[in-house]
Amino acid sequence: MTKPSTKTRESDLNSVKFSVREKIRGYLHATTKDKNKKYNDITMRSTLVLPSLILLFAFIATPLPVNGNASPDPVLDIAGKQLRTGSKYYILPVTKGRGGGLTLAGRSNNKTCPLDVVQEQHSFKNGLPVTFSPVNPKKGVVRESTDLNIKFDAATSCAQSTVWKLDNFDAVLGQWLLTTGGVEGNPGPRTMRNWFKIEKFFGDYKLVYCPSVCNFCRGLCRDVGIFINGGVRRLALSDVPFKIVFKKV
């Protein structure tokens, strides 16, 4: 039997090496292709999922819209009933022992009319009843932070009305005092000083002069407090609010 030559053996060996190299290349190519496919699949899934996650987080982070047409809370009297337009109420202080309800008084012997809004000296006196007229007269409920007229339900010897208004600045007293003689209704720049608001204040209420019946007008915006002059407790604009409640007549 003839032995294979050296060249033949080398040729066979080279063939085997070539075959092995080709198989290794094929395996590596297939593996790389599979990895690329998996990578592409992951990339594709990420491309599809990422925008969805962004939208989801944007939705979660976005606050829900607030109904801009929601009405302010109604003002309640001491019995827990809603204040009604045209009904009569006493405005009473929360703090006892520092005067009673609200009434009318002249400013001085030289100025008796129009009458100013003052507090009763004695805490057991309820004062004079008032009525409230919101800027929208069709609304039967008196609501917080809403422009309204306040009117004493009483007859006086003065020719002026008993509708509250902010008086001109009193240079002698250095105060913006509340007086009467205002106009009921007719919201606008000419009646700016006739409008007040009732706002919540530490569980009770306070009166505020901050009219919003004229969009282009610039005016004062302050709380209503008590200014004591000659023993008379007068209502005036103040940095210390007059804390009040309402009692139905």
TrEMBL record:
InterPro entries: Kunitz_inhibitor_STI-like_sf, Prot_inh_Kunz-lg. One of its GO terms (molecular function) is endopeptidase inhibitor activity. Pfam families: Kunitz_legume. The chain crosses the membrane at residues 47-66. SMART domains: STI. Keywords: Membrane, Transmembrane, Transmembrane helix. PANTHER family: KUNITZ TRYPSIN INHIBITOR 2, KUNITZ TRYPSIN INHIBITOR 5. This is Uncharacterized protein.
